[in-house]
Amino acid sequence: MTQAEVDKLYTKPVVLSSKQYTFNIELPVDSIDGYRWFLISPDYDYIDDDSYSHESVDIQNSKWGGMDNFKLKLTKKFRKVPYKIVLHFECLRPFESNPKVLTKDVTVLSLPD
Fold this sequence. Notes:
By secondary structure, the protein is mainly beta. Helices cover 4% and strands 48% of the residues. The chain has one helix at 3-7; strands at residues 14-16, 22-29, 36-40, 47-56, 66-74, 83-92, 102-110. Strands 1-7-6-3 form a four-stranded mixed β-sheet. A three-stranded antiparallel β-sheet has the order 2-5-4, with no helix packed on it. The longest helix is centred in the first third of the chain and has 5 residues, at 3-7.
């Protein structure tokens, strides 16, 4: 997986409607080679992490070894105001001392009534 391939993911914002408090970010990962995506902790409390899962895919029919799925939830105090946040993710091999790091920023827009 290359940075150029990652840059083609989530090119448009994730838009949340007024009653949508939970959302998923799914990122392809070459897990066979030991890579994993990590959500870099934001400096604000707009979201809570709800869960994380890794799903292996059919390697013969896919160019990726799996998908890392992040389930996130808006915090209660930010469900009534419109906002734009940028979530920062990094993909790396956690066991390497000098890992090659791929980055992805995902924009989330909340549009309450």
